[in-house]
């Protein structure tokens, strides 16, 4: 059994298979140090925590993860808070940095006797129509190599070999460019408010998300095509303070910017998630824009379904779990995509941004329909308990 990629998806699949005594190998393009320091997600849904608990993989997050229940919207007409942990189904997020989760999952996988090859990018997945699929790789010494197994779990992200190896015409690809770009920032500074902050501002969106007591993630809506380094740290802090309305609601804690990533908000979903003996999970199956923080959560959900399906097929000879795998995942993926799209609409004036770089400054001219409709969404969210319950359920749910 071959797993491509040691992100949350691949490592959860690997842990489930090892717990069932199945021999497997993970082939990972990056080094161990790289995967253990790659800062990305932080907000884990209750379902994700339940999955990790069920398989004894949640010790670390229970030790140092923190519960999070509130978000704050800062808009043209003031600010309001939603205590989403007590709305809807009354469930909180757990804040636990993805690189720590990956470190925990890797440690457990190795303890359980799992094999992994770092610095070994998969080049192609072959023979997926038959019972012995194989994977060609470039070994750490640069030499090509080939692995063969019963199944291949493609957990190697959007640009990995699994997606590339799907035979032409066997899957449909749904791609959507939301027309928005973010600059993702990681600051060595404590969180500035005790809530997730979403600021809707004429200069563009800004976001604030706690990671640890010493590190905070910020997002700035960013002109498409502009390099991440185009602005100095000082200019970024000035812009964050402006959009977060720090003058009215309190200053931001400044600190060195540890990471800058330009993120074009896109979604890219494949259907189905299986071709013969190749099965996709996580970002390899569906990439959602990070606006609703669903990617790592979907990856864990899919990995559990895939792990269980593989165990049933390999150990018990029952293929039904794998047969149902794609449809079960896709129903979650499309619901997450719908909510993610709604969040993007809530937080940005999409029609204005679509005019592209060089277009006349939108705020001098007449406002488009999107602006009114976005304001109506925010007002409904602020005033309607039914809308707040819907939001809370979808915000923490997958
Ligand atoms: P990963 O984590 O990308 O892991 C894939 C692994 O595959 C390796 N790989 C290969 N290995 C072998 N051969 C090849 N050819 C390979 N090509 C790639 C890579 O090195 C890597 O180790 O995918 P996975 O496991 O599917 O997990 C998905 C999540 O990482 C992703 O969806 C989230 O990080 C998205 N996301 C968030 N999700 C949440 O649920 N909550 C959040 O708060 C959240 N915040 C974020 C995010 C993503 C962000 N970025 C990357 C835009 C914040 C940011 C900034």
How is the topology of this model organized?
Layout lengths: L1 E3 L3 H12 L5 E3 L4 H6 L5 E2 L1 H9 L4 H6 L1 E3 L2 E5 L2 E5 L10 E3 L2 H14 L3 E3 L4 E5 L7 E5 L5 E5 L3 E3 L6 H4 L7 E16 L8 E4 L6 E5 L5 E6 L11 H11 L2 H4 L7 E15 L2 E2 L2 E3 L5 E2 L7 H22 L3 H28 L2 H4 L15 H15 L1 H12 L2
Parallel strand pairs: 1-2, 1-12, 2-8, 5-14, 12-19
Antiparallel strand pairs: 3-7, 4-7, 5-6, 9-10, 10-11, 13-16, 13-17, 14-15, 15-16, 17-20, 18-19
The chain binds 8-demethyl-8-dimethylamino-flavin-adenine-dinucleotide.
Organism: Streptomyces clavuligerus
EC number: 1.14.13.2
Pfam families: FAD_binding_3
What would you note in describing this structure?
This protein is an alpha+beta fold and 398 residues long. It has a domain at 2-67 and 92-175 and 267-341: FAD/NAD(P)-binding domain (3-Layer(bba) Sandwich). 37% of the residues lie in helices and 25% in strands. It contains 13 helices and 20 strands. It has helices spanning 8-19, 32-37, 46-54, 59-64, 98-111, 161-164, 233-243, 246-249, 295-316, 320-347, 350-353, 369-383, 385-396; strands at residues 2-4, 25-27, 43-44, 66-68, 71-75, 78-82, 93-95, 115-117, 122-126, 134-138, 144-148, 152-154, 172-187, 196-199, 206-210, 216-221, 257-271, 274-275, 278-280, 286-287. The strands form 4 sheets. An 8-stranded mixed beta sheet has the order 6-5-14-15-16-13-17-20. It has a 6-stranded mixed beta sheet with strand order 8-2-1-12-19-18. A 3-stranded antiparallel beta sheet has the order 3-7-4. The protein is globular and about 60 Å long. The chain starts with a strand and ends with a helix. Mean pLDDT is 93; it is low at 352-365. 8-demethyl-8-dimethylamino-flavin-adenine-dinucleotide binds next to helix 1, strand 17 and helix 9.
